[in-house]
Amino acid sequence: AQKITQTQPGMFVQEKEAVTLDCTYDTSDQSYGLFWYKQPSSGEMIFLIYQGSYDEQNATEGRYSLNFQKARKSANLVISASQLGDSAMYFCAMREVTGANNLFFGTGTRLTVIP
Amino acid sequence: GAGVSQSPSNKVTEKGKDVELRCDPISGHTALYWYRQSLGQGLEFLIYFQGNSAPDKSGLPSDRFSAERTGGSVSTLTIQRTQQEDSAVYLCASSLVAYGSYNEQFFGPGTRLTVL
Q: Which residue of A42, A52, A105 is in closest CB contact with B102?
């Protein structure tokens, strides 16, 4: 089974509007971390935000917030006040404390911000 | 400070040839990871190193792939007898430690490998 599922291959949002990128995950671990990365066309992976499984508050970083619903195993990324520079691929990833120490990535969502 | 660097940025090779990809992690980072990103796909874990411990090779797709990390710093990913399906971007990442759920990994710019 896929550890990380991103069901939206592509999303469009009007500039200055908010957008939600979906991510669901699958793990039997009690302790894990959830990450969102942005990959612009230049190819680098840029860390955006982190949510720990024991964190009670949703993580926020500037215009990024993570809507963490543990019982539903979802970790959606919300980008507020979209900007043209937000156009990129967005990847959700998870790290389990047990087992290998790598990140499991979803297949990504391509976000396009329309002026 | 310097981030993760990788070389070469682009590599074109012929099927059957061996290639070596290099990664220089952030100074002081004890954990180093290799990932592969095929066109339009997410990242696929290949191998990770933590300090002087034996590497976790669980993600390597075949025995044509190997990696080493010398002196706990620079790492080289070697692909022997390359195949066309090896064409991808190979990304290296490093982190301070590899324990706990919070483990921000800093990525390099990647090496785009094309096998003709």
A: A52
